[in-house]
Amino acid sequence: MLAVTWNLLAGYGGMVSVGQQASIGLGAYAVAYLAQTVGLNGFLALPVAAVMAGVVAVPVSFLAFRLVGGYFAIGTWVVAEVFRLLTVQWDAVGAGSGTSITSLSGYDRDVRLALTYWVALAAAAVVVVGSVLLVRSRFGLGLAAVRDDPVAAASTGVGVTTAKRVVFVLAAAGAGLAGGVLALGSLRVQPDSVYSVQWTAFMVFMVVIGGVGTIEGPIVGAVVFFVLQQTLAHYGATYLIVLGVVAIAMVLLAPRGLWGLLAGSRGTTLFPVGYRAVLGRRS
């Protein structure tokens, strides 16, 4: 979910954000608050958390879109830090020490883990399918035009700012959904954890490794990331160094990512989202 939504934002929307952890934190805390204070079932709180993250992203976009390029990236990071600092001051969610989701303690542990897994899988499927449908739509074509040349896209009637804002909000909702899943998986939410910039670093790694601007790339990158993490996690911080070396090597040797290497010149795809002009013969 994290890789696909960041790729939608950067790979298709052309907006490189390093502050998606803001939406992750919002989603996680929304699930915790709804489950603990409001009394809503934690699993049912997931879609509500996604919507809340998307709604909050709307006013944020008006601030972030005043910045471009590297300033936009830094600005989103600042926004995430502001959200973290505000959360630390909010006593209703445990302030700086965070909060636990004890309302799910009534579930048997194995049942809860199984439910969390299947809910996470369903959420990931929704995010992937939604991204495919979005990119294949007329809106997706306009979005690709905005990414490649905003001035040319505007001259053909594409609403540049609107297209960017829609993708920005959808990416925030997807990250909020992922944050909610993380909260249900650990039953514990802490500001320094859910608002950590490492989440965005992991997103960037997965997308760069798999292939920017493709649907398949983030999925392949997520698998590679998981394998490396599970294999090297017991080496401590060393595995982070390995991730960095792998990312640099991929950027230099295979800028199209692993999926670009697998697809080759034939342009093989599992999720066809592009359009090709076919020249017909006149009889």
Write a structural description.
The protein is an all-alpha fold. It folds into two domains: 2-196, no CATH class; 197-274, no CATH class. The protein has 13 helices and two strands. A two-stranded antiparallel ribbon has the order 1-2. α10 (198-210) runs parallel beside α13 (257-263) and α11 packs across α13 (257-263). The longest helix is centred in the middle third of the chain and has 28 residues, at 109-136. The radius of gyration is 20 Å and the shape is globular. The mean pLDDT is 83. It comes from Nocardioides mangrovicus.
Helical segment tally? Answer: 13
Overall 3D shape: globular
Order of helices and strands: HHHHEHHHHEHHHHH
From the alpha carbons, calculate the radius of gyration and give it in angstroms.
20 Å
Provide the β-strand percentage band.
Answer: under 5%
Give the class from helix and strand content and strand pairing.
mainly alpha
How much helix, percentage-wise, in residues? 55-70%
Low-pLDDT regions:
none
Protein name: Branched-chain amino acid ABC transporter permease
Subcellular location: Cell membrane
Transmembrane segments: 12-35, 42-65, 115-135, 166-187, 199-228, 235-253, 259-279
InterPro entries: ABC_transp_permease (IPR001851), LivM-like (IPR043428)
